[in-house]
Amino acid sequence: MLKTRFTEAFGVEYPIAQGGMQWVGKAKLVAAVANAGALGFVTALTQPTPEELAKEIQRTKDLTDKPFGVNLTILPTITPPPYAEYRRAIIEGGIKVVETAGYKPQEHIDDFKAHGIKVIHKCTAVRHAASAERMGADAISIDGFECAGHPGEDDIPGLILIPAAANKIKVPMLASGGFGDGRGLVAALALGADGINMGTRFCVTQEAEIADSFKQQMVENDERATDLIFRTLHNTARVMKNKVSQEVVAIERAGNAKFEDVQHLVAGARGRSAMERGDTDDGIWSAGMVQGLINDVPTVKELVDRIVAEAEEIIEGRLQSMISRYAEAAE
C-alpha cells in the first residue's frame, strides 16, 4: 500500500487527486475517483450558480460515501462570480476539503479553515506555494510547466519545480503537470512530493462527461500536441493544439496583439459549445503534454488501480532490484 502524508492527512486510500477542471469536474467523475480510492474535486465555477453547486455536491454524495472536495478558482475578472456565496454552498454542503487556485486566496482560506475545512492550494511557483503555506493552506499542489491550463510565466518544469518546492514547503505537497501513470507517481514521490494531481488523464476516462471525440483526439495526440496561448498577454495557457489555437498563436506572433484580437476565438461559450458538439477544432480546450502518454479510455477505477499497481511494481521490483544487485556486487 502506498501511504504518504497526503493519504494520511486527507483520509484517502491512494496518493492521487483529480483536481478541479472547468466543465469536467462533475458528480459522475468525482464520485468515480472517490470510489476508486483517490481524491476528486467538483469544480465550483462549472456550476452557473451557488445553488446549482449545492445540488452538484448532493449528487456526488448520492454516488459515493468516500471523501471528495470542491475546487474554487479565484481569477481577476471584470465581473467576479459571487465567491462568498459559492463558499457558503461549499461550507453548508458539508465539504471537508477544498482545492483553491488563483488570485489572493487569503479570505477564502480563512473562511474555510474557520469552518474546519482543509485547504489544498494549487500554484505554479515556489514563492506562491510558500505564501499559501503562510496563509494557512494545509497542503500545496505545485503545477509544473507541462500542465494543462495556466502554467504561470516562469516556465519551470516539474523535474526542477517539485524538488525546489519540497525544499521549502513543510505541509504535504501534490505534484501536478505531466502525470498519467505509475512511473510519474514514483518520480513525484522521489522528487519530494506526497502524491500526484492529474487533470488531462482523468479527462480521458469513461466517466468524464465530455464528448468521445475529445477523448479519442487526446489518445491520438502525442506530447507535442499542445499550444501555449496568451504568452504575449502574460497570461499563458496550455491548450490542445487545433485550428483555433493555431490561429491564436499566429495572431500573437504577428505582434502587438490585444485580448480583443483573439476574444472571439477563445470565448468560453464557444469552447463549451464545441465540446458539447464534439468538434475538437472549434474552440479552446485545456490539455497537457501528458497526452503523449495516454493510449486508452479506461474506467476511473481501472486507471487508478493500474497506476498504483505499476508504481508498486517499480518500487518493489525495478528499484529494489537495483539496490539488491548493487549490494551483491559490493560484497
From TrEMBL:
Gene3D superfamilies found in the cross-reference section: Aldolase class I (3.20.20.70)
Gene Ontology molecular functions: nitronate monooxygenase activity
Name this polypeptide is given: Nitronate monooxygenase
Keyword Cell membrane assigned: no
Entry-linked Pfam families: NMO
Top-level taxon of the source organism: Bacteria
Enzyme class: oxidoreductase
Coiled-coil ranges (or none): none
Documented EC number(s): 1.13.12.16
InterPro entries membership: Aldolase_TIM, NMO
Entry keywords, A to Z: Flavoprotein, FMN, Monooxygenase, Oxidoreductase
